[in-house]
Amino acid sequence: MDVNKTKSEKPKLINMKIGIVCYPTFGGSGVVATELGKALAKEGHQVHFITYRQPTRLDFFSANLFYHEVDIKSYPLFEHAPYELALASKMVNVAKYEQLDLLHVHYAIPHASAAYMAKQILKEEGIYIPVVTTLHGTDITLVGKDPSYEPVVTFSINQSDGVTAVSEDLKRATFELFDIKTEIEVIPNFIDLDRFKKQKKEHFKLAICPNGEKLLVHTSNFRKVKRVEDVIKVFFEIRKTLPVKLLLVGDGPERDKMERLCRELGTCDDTRFLGKLEAVEEVLSVADLFLMPSEKESFGLAALEAMACEVPVLSSNAGGIPELNIDGVTGYACEIGNIEEMTKRALEILDDANLPRFKANALARAKELDVSNILPQYEEFYRKTIEKSQANILNLG
Ligand code: GMT
Fold this sequence. Notes:
Elements: E1 2-5, E2 11-14, E3 17-21, H1 28-42, E4 46-51, E5 65-69, H2 83-97, E6 102-106, H3 108-124, E7 131-135, H4 138-141, H5 150-159, E8 162-165, H6 168-177, E9 185-186, H7 193-196, H8 202-208, E10 214-219, H9 228-238, E11 244-249, H10 255-265, E12 271-275, H11 280-284, E13 289-292, H12 301-308, E14 313-316, H13 321-324, E15 331-334, H14 339-350, H15 355-368, H16 371-396
Parallel strand pairs: 3-4, 3-6, 4-5, 6-7, 7-8, 8-9, 10-11, 10-13, 11-12, 13-14, 14-15
Antiparallel strand pairs: 1-2
Bound molecules: ligand GMT.
Protein name: N-acetyl-alpha-D-glucosaminyl L-malate synthase BshA
Domain Glycosyl transferase family: 209-356
Organism: Mongoliibacter ruber
C-alpha cells in the first residue's frame, strides 16, 4: 500500500489491494459489493473478488479487477459441503499470494466468521490482515439473530477490525439484537448515476401504456418479507380511480401466489410479470411510481435505483427505508401493510400537479447517494482500519 498526500495534506491511499467477499447472485448486498469493487478499481485500487460464482455485474475486463472462485469440494460423507472452510482457505491463499492490504466482507453470514478464521491462519505465518465487515440487513434482522447463528455472528462482528452498516436503523438493530462491543460506522448504499440516468424509452412506455396510463413498477426477489401482495392490492385500489399499469420485475418463492392474487382480483390484463431482468434501468426509466411495501428493509437499494431514474417511491416505513425515501419529499413512507394509506398517498404522488415535484426530489436524493459521494467514505474507512490494525500490531510487538 502506498500513501500519498493530496493538496490538502490529507493522506490519500493509492494502489491499495483489497479482497472483496460477497454473494455473487441477484440481491442487494452482492450488487453493492460488486459496484464498490468496480468503483475502487476505477480509482486505481486493485480489487480481488472472492466468491463461489462470477458476480452478476462483473462481466467485463479491467486491469485492476480480479476474480477468485471458491472451490467447494464435495464428498459422499458431506450432506452439506463445508463452504465456510473452502472460503476461508481461498481467502488465506489470495491474501498471501496477492499481498492484500485488507479483506472487506459483505453480509456477515458466513463471510465474517470465515474471514476471522483466515485472519488467524495468516497470523500464524506472520501475516496480519485487517477485516472490514459490512452488515446488509437480513444477516442481522432475519437470519443472524436466529439462535442457530447468533453466537458466531456476535463473535465475528466483534472480531472484525472495522464494521459498517448500510443505515442508521441497521446499526441500531445490531446493537439491540447482539452483544456488540465494537463501533459501527454507517456508510449508506450508493448508486452509479451514470448507469441509471434516465434513458429515452418512450416507445417502450407507449407499448405498455398505449392510452397514457401511469406506470407502476416493483422489483424484488419475491420473498415474503417484500410483501408483494401489498403491491398488487394497492394497484387494485388505485386502478379504481386512475388508469394504471403494473410491471413486476424479479422472481422468487411468492411469485405463483402473486399470479393467483392477480387472477382473483381481475387485474391480470393490466399487470405483467417480467421475471429477472439484468437491465432493470430500462423499465425504471419509463415508470411513474416505484412500490416497496416491505416488512423489513435495512436500506432498500431497489428504491434507490428507481430514484436514480427519477421515479418517486411509495414505500413502507420499515427499517432504514425512511432514511432513503424522505416522507412527503421523494415519495411517502407509510405504515407497513396499511393499504388504504398507501393508496391515498400513491394517488397524491401520481396527481399531475404533484408528480414533477416528486420526480425531481427523487432524483436529487439519488444524486446525494451517487458513488462519487460514498466511495471516499469507504476509502477513508479502509485507511483508518489499516492504520488502527498496524498500530495494534506494533503495540503487540
Ligand atoms: O433484501 C434482500 O432480499 C436481499 C438483501 C441482500 O443481502 O442482498 O438485501 C439487504 O441488503 C441490501 C443492500 O445493502 C439492502 O438494500 C436491503 O434493504 C437489505 N434487505 C433487507 O434488509 C430485507
